[in-house]
Amino acid sequence: MRIKENFYPFIYMIFFILMTTVIINCGKDDKTSQNTSEKKDDTTKKTSTTQTTGSDSPGKEIFYKKSSENNIACSDCHSDGTNTSNSLTKYFSNIQGANKRTSTYLGKFKGEEVALNAGGATICWKEYMRMKTPMTEDQIKTLNEYYTSVATPDSPLEITYETIALPVKDKAKLKEVQKVIMELKGDPSKGEQSFNNACGFCHAESSTVKKVPSVLEDFEGNVKSIIFNVRLGDAAMPFFKKDVLSDQEIADISSYLLQKSGQ
Ligand code: HEC
Ligand code: HEC
Fold first, then answer.
1. Nearest bound ligand to the CA of residue 128
2. What pLDDT band is residue 29 in, cutting at 50, 70 and 90?
3. pLDDT at res. 85
4. pTM
5. What is the average per-residue pLDDT within 172-191?
6. How many whole angstroms separate alpha carbon 84 and alpha carbon 88?
7. Of 28, 59, 197, 221, which sits most exposed with the smallest number of CB within 10 A?
8. In a mutational test of the pocket of ligand 2, which residue from 169, 205, 237 has the highest number of ligand atoms less than 8 Å from its CB?
9. Where do the domains of the chain lie?
10. How far is Cα 47 from Cα 53, in angstroms, rounded to an integer?
11. Quick check: CB of 235 below 6 Å from ligand 2?
12. Do residues 209 and 237 make contact, with C-beta atoms less than 8 angstroms apart?
């Protein structure tokens, strides 16, 4: 009898411990399965967004994808209406409805050619992103679809601007432009500001764009070569239109760069 009386609490304790272990483990299992189903939900959501609203469309993916060659994306230079905080987007055309424009790249592409070249993106792809293989028909098609998906009722049918880089680099006009800018007095502190806005994305020390020469250290160029690069562009460096970067701003930037390099 005594033994039995002492034995009962012991059995209760074992039972209690077993139950607790079972309950805790069940809880754990529950959590794990919840996580898995949440993850599954996420994937389903993503896939269905792709199919329905196009907010994560293949075209958008191309637009935001960094080049494997120099780590720059379309969205670093162009706006789709949502990324205007990227510093360079104020210097280059937006792409909203670009496939429906009557002409792009200042007349280089007209009529049917516009959509066939994703509004001219085929040039950017090769020149500015240094891609080794041309854009595929499929990529062109998905980019066009993306332009349409972000178009607004007042998207322009043509974007015009002042440049000496199109239709071909005008070296004779460049001489005149150099003369005009060299007669302006540059302000280096204003130049620093303009440099950070228009050039820093690629040329700042903190830049994530690859294959860009430093113009802040050991720069051996001069005002003429700066004007050449900025107004005509040079390989992966895009040209800057007069409408968005004035002659005075180039004079300011030049005086800043020359001051920095002790010239
Ligand atoms: C380094 C900057 C840069 C990158 C990167 C870039 N572009 Fe461009 N893009 C330009 C410049 C410069 C022009 C010609 C001047 C302008 O339109 O502002 C241009 C022109 C265009 C135009 C013609 C706009 C018009 O109406 O004339 C379209 C469309 C375009 N780019 C799309 C793209 C797409 C899509 C990508 C990515 C595959 C891309 N660009 C990558 C700089 C860039
Ligand atoms: C999208 C990136 C990008 C932007 C923005 C940019 N550059 Fe460049 N820059 C380059 C690249 C790439 C080169 C090298 C070009 C080459 O390979 O010939 C270059 C070259 C230069 C050079 C020649 C340097 C040398 O030592 O030969 C100068 C000067 C220059 N850039 C000035 C500027 C100025 C000023 C601005 C702003 C108004 C600017 N860049 C904006 C990419 C950029």
1. 1
2. very low
3. 95
4. 0.83
5. 98
6. 8
7. 28
8. 237
9. 58-149, 171-260
10. 10
11. yes
12. no
CATH fold label, 171-260: Cytochrome Bc1 Complex; Chain D, domain 2 (1.10.760)
Contact (CB, 8 A) for 167 and 235:
no
Q: Which ligand 1 atom is the nearest neighbour of the CA of 143?
A: 35
What is the Å distance from ligand 2's center to 226 Cα?
Answer: 8
In the block, tokens 């104020």 appear at 90
- The closest-lying atom of ligand 1 relative to the alpha carbon of residue 159 is 26
Own/partner contacts of 81-87, CB < 8 Å, gap of 24 or more, are: 81/150, 81/152, 82/150, 86/201, 87/196, 87/197, 87/198, 87/200, 87/201
Report residue 143 as tokens: 């980019």
**What are the CA-CA distances from residue 94 to residues 89, 157, 220 (Å)?**
7, 12, 34
- Structure confidence by residue, pLDDT tens digits, 32-88: 344 434 433 443 333 333 344 445 789 999 999 999 999 999 999 999 999 999 999
Minimal CA–CA distance to 131: which of 64, 75, 66? Answer: 66
Q: What percent of the chain has pLDDT over 70?
A: 79
Pocket of ligand 1 (CB under 6 A): 63, 72, 74, 76-78, 92-93, 95, 98, 101, 104-105, 118-121, 124-125, 128-129, 143, 159, 238-239
pLDDT, tens only, 122-143? 999 999 999 999 999 999 999 9
Phi, psi for 138 (deg, rounded to 5): -65, -40
CB 121 within 8 A of CB 74: yes
**Measured in Å, how far apart are the chain's first and last C-alpha atoms?**
106
DSSP letter assigned to residue 236? T
In contact, 209 and 201? CB cutoff 8 Å: yes
pLDDT for 52 equals: 40
